[in-house]
Structure formats: C-alpha cells, structure tokens
Amino acid sequence: MSAWFNYIAVSKIVIFGLLVGAALPALFAVGVRLNADGVGATSVARRNPVLLALSWLIFALVLAAVLLGVLFIARDFIGHHTGWYILGAQHK
Fold first, then answer.
1. Cα dihedral 6, 92, 70, 62 sign
2. What is the pTM of this model?
C-alpha cells in the first residue's frame, strides 16, 4: 500500500461500482425481456407463467437491492430520528 494511494479501497470501489452500475441494470433488462416473453407480447406467442414469475422475482430482487442501498445511505438519519440503528449505524 502506498502512502498516498490505497489499492484495497480502490479495488472495493471498482468492484462495487461494477456490481451496482452494470449488474443491477443488466439484471433488470433480463427481467424486462423475460416479462415480455412471459406475457406473450407477439401475436403468435402464448403466456408462459414460469417466465412471468421469474421476471417478477428478478424485479423484486432489484427493488430489494435499491431499497437496501437507500437504507444504507440514510442509516444515520434514520437512527437519529427514529432510534432504529440499522445496518451498522452508530448511536452518537
């Protein structure tokens, strides 16, 4: 580790950025595609309940990740105003 550059912190930021910046939107796009195939968007296609259920499961996963991220960012604010210290928030 250099005195002015923290390689471990940079690698954590890059990995998290790739996960949030690329993986979540890609997962959402897969969910949209499965939803379109599941509802039978074309005139010759029929409904496929398995694909439809899988798409909604993916949407729920993406929504949970977004909500968890918002709660993580606001954890100190939530702890200060409600007394619920969640996700590692510290009482000050």
1. positive
2. 0.75
The identity of residue 56, as a single letter, is W
Contact present, 59 and 28 (Cβ < 8 Å):
yes
Model confidence at 65: pLDDT above 80? yes
Residue type, 47: R
Q: Which residues contact 67 (CB under 8 A, 6 or more apart)?
A: none
88 Cα distance to chain centroid: 19
Residue 36 in tokens = 């379109």
User: DSSP string spanning 10-27?
Assistant: HHHHHHHHHIIIIIHHHH
Q: CB atoms < 10 A from the CB of 38, how many?
A: 20
pLDDT category, 41, cuts 50, 70, 90?
low
Would you say residue 14 has pLDDT above 70? yes
Coil, helix or strand for 2?
A: coil
